[in-house]
Amino acid sequence: MEQKRIQPLARDAMAYVLAGGRGSRLKELTDRRAKPAVYFGGKARIIDFALSNALNSGIRRIGVATQYKAHSLIRHLQRGWNFFRPERNESFDILPASQRVSETQWYEGTADAVYQNIDIIEDHGVEYMVILAGDHIYKMDYELMLQQHVDSGAQVTIGCLEVPRMEATGFGVMHVDEKDQIIAFVEKPADPPGIPGQPDLALASMGIYVFHTKFLMDLLRRDAADPTSSRDFGKDIIPYIVQHGKAVAHRFASSCVRSDFEREAYWRDVGTIDAYWQANIDLTDIAPELDIYDSTWPIWTFAEIKPPAKFVHDDENRRGSAISSLVSGDCIISGSTLHRSLLFTGVRANSFSRLEGAVVLPDVRIGRHANLKNVVIDRGVIIPEGLVVGEDPEADARRFRRSSGGICLITQPMIDKLEQ
């Protein structure tokens, strides 16, 4: 007689978040911070979504591997994720690349970022490892993926998105059989394999993997001893298991967390300026595709102690107002007009300025009579009086970082050049 599970599998799992990447397609937004540390949604950072998913799923042991310009990320983790208690069998390890294996070697790849911390992982004595990318926006219950992993007898279970087949050319794509067992893993194929019974769709890797811990540790030691390996999950580890063992796909739609307002499974890689702007601005919709107001699956983050937002002046053409916008704490909208915009903490928008389609990071100062449309403004930027952005594409491209989608990224060095 099969023994029933007494507790959720997540209680015997560790989430290991790979958060070392720069995210170079975000251009100047990642000049001073890693992509997982980039701000999102008015209060959070991108990494908070993977961490919140782990916490909400019941996982109480978490490790975060950092590398590129990690200070702001580490500071955020220390401030916002310092509530784990060892006496409750909880742990939160921040694991910078610290040349622990070799005095000359940083993390050489995603697999190496786990391998170099094997001793720390094994000390926790967990049965399962959930390997996560730290730079995507989504809500997911990892417990359901763990259950599938155990029930299927897989050696690795890989989180996958169903995407239109020819849109999968930029992903690692799973070629599966009728039971979702992976028979081939193809990195960025020109002609992606379709899904059995759904030939117009392909299964794209989310960069989420579930392993039994001992199996993964053995595999990483074997890989580290291979001088030809690039030390990467997608290029080395996963193809090896597909060829020599049992790899199974887990479809995101079956474990995506949705509130009553969310119609479809939501997942975004906000890796470009256009995608980043769009995902933030989408939150201003009446019924956004991503519900960040769902209290049953909260997105945890560093909650700053700040006063409420404030709107002042009620004169003609000088009225503090916001339409279809998100305005965070400690913002003062002083005779400024916002439309379909998202303001992070501590923004000051001064009289007669107008913002439309603006994603404004913390502590920005917007001067009087500024007119800004379809912009992303980096933290701490001081926008001079009368600046106009979003009306003359050629002038915008000369002064700022203008994306292919017409979004202007504005940083303080760009503003400083205007005044020279």
UniProtKB/TrEMBL annotation:
| EC number annotated for this UniProt entry | 2.7.7.27
Gene3D superfamilies named among the record's database cross-references:
Hexapeptide repeat proteins, Spore Coat Polysaccharide Biosynthesis Protein SpsA, Chain A
Question: InterPro entries attached here?
Answer: ADP-Glc_PPase (IPR011831), ADP_Glu_pyroP_CS (IPR005836), GlgC_bac (IPR023049), GlmU/GlgC-like_hexapep (IPR056818), NTP_transferase_dom (IPR005835), Nucleotide-diphossugar_trans (IPR029044), Trimer_LpxA-like_sf (IPR011004)
Q: Which residues bind alpha-D-glucose 1-phosphate?
A: 107, 172, 187-188, 205
- Any idea where the Nucleotidyl transferase domain is? 16-284
Coiled-coil region: none
Keyword Ubl conjugation set for record: no
Q: Which HAMAP family match?
A: GlgC
Tell me its family: Belongs to the bacterial/plant glucose-1-phosphate adenylyltransferase family.
Matches recorded under PANTHER family: GLUCOSE-1-PHOSPHATE ADENYLYLTRANSFERASE, GLUCOSE-1-PHOSPHATE ADENYLYLTRANSFERASE-RELATED
Protein name (record): Glucose-1-phosphate adenylyltransferase
Which species expresses this protein natively? Shinella lacus
The organism's taxonomy opens as: Bacteria, Pseudomonadati, Pseudomonadota, Alphaproteobacteria, Hyphomicrobiales
